[in-house]
Amino acid sequence: LRIQNERQQQGYLPSLDEYSRVWGLSHDRFNKLSPHAFVMHPGPVNEGIEISSELMRNKNVLIEKQVANGVAVRMAILHKFATLGILT
After folding, report:
1. CA angle at 82 for the pair 80 and 84, rounded to the nearest 5°
2. Which residue range forms the structural domain that includes residue 51?
3. What are the transmembrane regions (predicted)?
């Protein structure tokens, strides 16, 4: 899940920089994964905090495709469940 900037005033994290350093996905961290690894995120991404700006341009980051296809995929799943009688 994305970090919610609107809730940062409550002081749950010392700073967004610290959050990014400890939990963020940097290009260096990504390079330690399998070359076949993909990055997905439900969006919206807090670029530079959750995922580095450099990494967002990587061909294995599928976030734009994931968001673009999200409604169609959910509709297909619901249709399949409905035709199988799972939703009744």
Report:
1. 70
2. 5-63
3. none
Q: Rounded to 10 degrees, what is the CA torsion of 19, 21, 27, 30?
A: -70
**Is the pTM value of this prediction over 0.90?**
no
Give DSSP secondary structure letters for 48-88: TTTB-HHHHTSTTB-HHHHHHHHHHHHHHHHHHHHHHTTT-
CA 58 to chain CA centroid, nearest Å:
14
Q: How many domains does the chain have?
A: 1
Encode pLDDT of 48-74 as tens digits. Answer: 999 999 999 999 999 999 999 999 999
CATH number of 32's domain: 3.40.50.1370
